């Protein structure tokens, strides 16, 4: 929700125009009050959970007064923090734990469904092209024309070393 | 416009060529001096125990280590935990523990208890809870769908 006021107004156009890919102003605005704490995966201040790059460039939540109080407490001995406070600090830095983002979800059903829909669409398009768009195949595709073509290839001795004529015995007039 | 592009392209080409040759030289220098496991451990222990290391560098080291095909040795894990203590970031320490547990892969049943046994003194000294104590060995929260937000 806090994103929307940042994006309002005439600046939006300028912001989107200034390179998104280079981590331009738009990403900076989306980061808002979050601390940039590291390099992350590509140097852009983005957050995501992944075992390949478990320490993203920014903290997950924005800085707020309660957190600042907690961070003050964190400076002291960690044994004085309660388990709940430790969890709060963790959730401030990270969105999901390893166990959560590696949990098996039924998302594969959606992927399979979409993939099958795309295949069905492709088959439908090819059938309709065949029936509605293309004309009948030319005469030269029937058996008679094709065998005449083959006979002519052999008579002209085309590709005599490795090709079709090399398979034909010209003395006995039959296939080798 | 075209001339600018051409100039950029030329300089890019030149730098890439120069880069390649220096990289080749670096690789050639490395031939025959393979780093042993002990040296590797020592190098990373030293990296994490350096005075004045900041969160940025710690994250970089941890990201690198967790991207490699290995399980960090208990010494490195301890050094990482102490480094997170020095920058006062307990979230970093917990995430690091989780990452090291994940690196055990399908050997979690044998490797993880060993690692835990080795690093328990450090955990207790610094007051870092184990993943089991936090209940993070199982999913704790479900993410809300973006359509419900």
Automatic annotation (TrEMBL), chain A:
Component of the cytochrome c oxidase (complex IV, CIV), a multisubunit enzyme composed of 14 subunits. Keywords: Membrane, Mitochondrion, Mitochondrion inner membrane, Oxidoreductase, Transit peptide, Transmembrane, Transmembrane helix. Transmembrane segments: none annotated. Pathway: Energy metabolism; oxidative phosphorylation. PANTHER family: CYTOCHROME C OXIDASE SUBUNIT 4, CYTOCHROME C OXIDASE SUBUNIT IV. GO terms for cellular component: mitochondrial inner membrane; respiratory chain complex IV. It is found in: Mitochondrion inner membrane. It comes from the Eukaryota. It comes from Drosophila erecta. Component of the cytochrome c oxidase, the last enzyme in the mitochondrial electron transport chain which drives oxidative phosphorylation. Its main location: mitochondrion. This is Cytochrome c oxidase subunit 4. It holds the Pfam family COX4. GO terms for biological process: mitochondrial electron transport, cytochrome c to oxygen. It is a single-pass membrane protein. Belongs to the cytochrome c oxidase IV family. The keyword Transit peptide applies. GO terms for molecular function: oxidoreductase activity.
From TrEMBL, chain B:
It is a peripheral membrane protein. GO terms for molecular function: metal ion binding. It comes from the Eukaryota. GO terms for cellular component: mitochondrial inner membrane; respiratory chain complex IV. It holds the Pfam family COX5A. It is found in: Mitochondrion inner membrane. Keywords: Heme, Iron, Membrane, Metal-binding, Mitochondrion, Mitochondrion inner membrane, Transit peptide. The keyword Cell cycle does not apply. GO terms for biological process: mitochondrial electron transport, cytochrome c to oxygen; positive regulation of cell cycle. Pathway: Energy metabolism; oxidative phosphorylation. SUPFAM superfamilies: Cytochrome c oxidase subunit E. Component of the cytochrome c oxidase (complex IV, CIV), a multisubunit enzyme composed of a catalytic core of 3 subunits and several supernumerary subunits. The complex exists as a monomer or a dimer and forms supercomplexes (SCs) in the inner mitochondrial membrane with ubiquinol-cytochrome c oxidoreductase (cytochrome b-c1 complex, complex III, CIII). Belongs to the cytochrome c oxidase subunit 5A family. Component of the cytochrome c oxidase, the last enzyme in the mitochondrial electron transport chain which drives oxidative phosphorylation. The respiratory chain contains 3 multisubunit complexes succinate dehydrogenase (complex II, CII), ubiquinol-cytochrome c oxidoreductase (cytochrome b-c1 complex, complex III, CIII) and cytochrome c oxidase (complex IV, CIV), that cooperate to transfer electrons derived from NADH and succinate to molecular oxygen, creating an electrochemical gradient over the inner membrane that drives transmembrane transport and the ATP synthase. This is Cytochrome c oxidase subunit 5A, mitochondrial. The gene is Dere\GG18466.
């Amino acid at each position: 929700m806090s994103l929307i006021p940042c994006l309002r107004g005439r600046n939006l156009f300028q912001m989107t125009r200034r390179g998104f890919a280079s981590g331009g102003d738009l990403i900076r605005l989306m980061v808002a009050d979050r601390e940039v704490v590291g390099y992350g995966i590509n140097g852009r201040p983005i957050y995501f959970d992944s075992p390949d790059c478990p320490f993203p460039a920014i903290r997950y939540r924005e800085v707020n007064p309660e957190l600042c109080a907690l961070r003050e407490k964190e400076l002291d001995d960690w044994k004085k923090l309660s388990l709940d406070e430790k969890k709060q600090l963790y959730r401030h830095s990270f969105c999901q734990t390893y166990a959560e983002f590696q949990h098996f979800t039924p998302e594969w059903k959606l992927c399979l469904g979409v993939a099958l829909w795309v295949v069905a669409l492709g088959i439908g398009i090819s059938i309709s092209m065949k029936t509605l768009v293309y004309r009948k195949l030319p005469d030269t595709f029937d058996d008679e024309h094709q065998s005449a073509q083959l006979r002519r290839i052999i008579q002209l001795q085309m590709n005599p070393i490795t090709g079709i004529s090399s398979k034909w015995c010209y003395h006995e007039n039959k296939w080798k | 416009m075209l001339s600018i592009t051409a100039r950029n392209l030329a300089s890019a080409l030149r730098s890439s060529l120069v880069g390649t040759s220096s990289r080749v030289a670096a690789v050639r220098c490395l031939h025959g001096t393979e780093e042993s496991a002990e040296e590797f451990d020592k190098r990373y222990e030293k990296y994490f125990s350096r005075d004045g290391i900041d969160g940025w560098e710690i994250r970089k080291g941890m990201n690198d280590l967790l991207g490699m095909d290995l399980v960090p040795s208990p010494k490195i894990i301890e050094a990482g935990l102490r480094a997170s203590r020095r920058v006062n970031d307990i979230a970093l320490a917990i995430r690091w523990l989780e990452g090291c547990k994940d690196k055990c892969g399908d050997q979690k049943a044998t490797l993880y208890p060993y690692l835990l046994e080795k690093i328990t003194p450090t955990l207790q000294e610094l007051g870092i809870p184990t993943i089991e104590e936090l209940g993070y060995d199982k999913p704790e929260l479900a993410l809300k769908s973006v359509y419900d937000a």
